[in-house]
Amino acid sequence: MILLDGKKVSNDIKNEIAEEVRKMKVQGEKVPHLAAIIVGNDGASLTYVASKVKACERVGFESTMVRMSNTTSEIELLDKIEELNQDDDIDGFIIQLPLPKQINTQKVLMAVDPDKDVDGFHPMNFGKMALDMSTFIPATPFGILELLDRYHVETKGKHTVVIGRSHIVGRPMSILMGRKGFPGNSTVTITHSHTKNITQITSQADIIISALGVPNFLKAEMVKDDVVIIDVGITRVVDETSPKGYVITGDVDFENVSKKASFITPVPGGVGPMTIAMLLKNTLLARELRH
Description:
The chain is α/β, with parallel strands linked by helices. It has two domains: about 30-115, Rossmann fold, CATH 3.40.50.10860; about 140-270, Rossmann fold (3-Layer(aba) Sandwich), CATH 3.40.50.720. The protein has ten helices and eleven strands. Strands 1-11-8-7-5-6 form a six-stranded parallel sheet. It is globular.
């Protein structure tokens, strides 16, 4: 069993990006600039955005965090987005989700300039991805592709089962794993809460990508030997024995499934660290497209 170490790979990617930024500075070129809008005071969102700012500092990017109150109206947020769309100094920006209930998330994501949409959530970018055109791939699926690529995990002709159909992970992964090229060229089955006999499907899978958010959902008896497991799930589970009072758990019963797997991502330290690294990679791409 080989551990797909997202922590190591994400550090490698950040080092590669830092080297590119160093060359830009030597040549007197503009370095990439990433902005993030955060509305409200959600603790997990604030932590996540802070880690993005820290990652920008590490690779030499400029970063801007735009804090808006929980009572921000949809119009105020749309005005701020338009301001960032027009700001030539900013190469890409993200809107941290979830948004307060008075704001229509879809309307807000549609307002982002597709050329600055480094999250890859705009329908134009999603459509380009579905058509195999060059575009921003959402950061988590992009990170999964990068892990498969760097560990030379064979995907051609394999049966990939995706558990979950969210627009952020499940749906894009089902498209990407079936595309021409590597990683891709696999036969994809997408499963969700209405799928019957899910064990019958997962037990035939060569590759399983689980983005369900149900702790320890995937058991050893649901997978075959030598399966490749990508665990995107990340849930806080109460644990009195832990100093924090909780542990981070994935969708996969790691202890038992890892005994059967050929490759597996740990949680934490697998897909999670890759997401921020790929957001930086998308920002680098946005800067190249704009300059």
